[in-house]
Structure prediction request, 352 residues.
Amino acid sequence: MAPTVPSVNDLCVKDLAQSPDLKSIPSQFTFINDSKGSNSDSLPVVDFSMLVSDNADQRSIALLDIRKACEDWGFFVLINHGIPESLMKAIIDASLEFFDLPEEEKRRYEAKSASDPIKAGSGTANTANNKILLWRDFMKSYVHPNFYCPEKPQHLRYVVSEYSEKSRWVLRKLLQGICENLELEAGSMDEAMNLDSCFQLYAANFYPPCPQPDLAIGIPPHTDHGLLTFLIHNGVAGLQIEHNGEWFHTNSPKNSILVNTADHLEIFSNGRYKSVKHRAVVNTEATRISVVLANGPAPDVVVSPSEELVKRDGRALYGPMKYIEYVETMLSNQYGGKGNLECLKIQADYHE
Prediction:
């Protein structure tokens, strides 16, 4: 008997994957892709302890590593960041506990609109002709400047709150370094983006084993809203990034954070640092849990390129848009490549 195919609104990829008679994926999940990718040992590594060091030489090395990472890859592995390993393990474990909750508990957080501060489900992706189901369950919540979190498991809110707070300090130090690399005042992004009230979105993703991983996708190619995205996982690989037209596996070691430049850093830098496409692929053997923290400007900030960089370049490459409007528009249709970012690009007037 073929497995029962859930409706789009059911939170059931986990249950479907655990069905003992599942030999192939239901057709609604079909997403043809070359998920193999290439291995790369070149993903940049940034030592955060050197960035915040009082040693000028060490700090210079860290700044150079960040600049190269932002210019060449748009991704880097952050080590020695100071966030306790116990906390990182706790947020992975608590996120897994959420997905183990009864369906009726998770169903409380089915999204009614893109502006819902807590959302849970399985999700869909838009293709050229139809919508496909993703081989993933998720839970997302806004955690700063206002904090929202599911009621269960009870300790989830405590570990998410602590992790987001510690991450904000790391975020500010990284953005200060990025400003220095752009030859801007170290606090210029802090002021322009009102980082005291920076927007943070916590997302937990559950990717169960898939009988046909080459015919399914966890998350299709996309870019992220915000300035920098932080990602940790349970040790099971699955994130791939696009670099020079090829897909590469990422391999971030234990207790590290995978950081990527996002859309609003590309906008603020007037195109100097690119927001890079990435995707989540699935496998036949192991469940992957990833925890993502999207870090952006304050919700009401209208984001546009840095005035200083626009002066240097002679023109702005991107138009302005309020950050929360960008987020909610993207969340309502987030799998169309760069989407909003492409719409905000200003074409050069060659008749000037």
Observations:
- The longest helix spans residues 156-181.
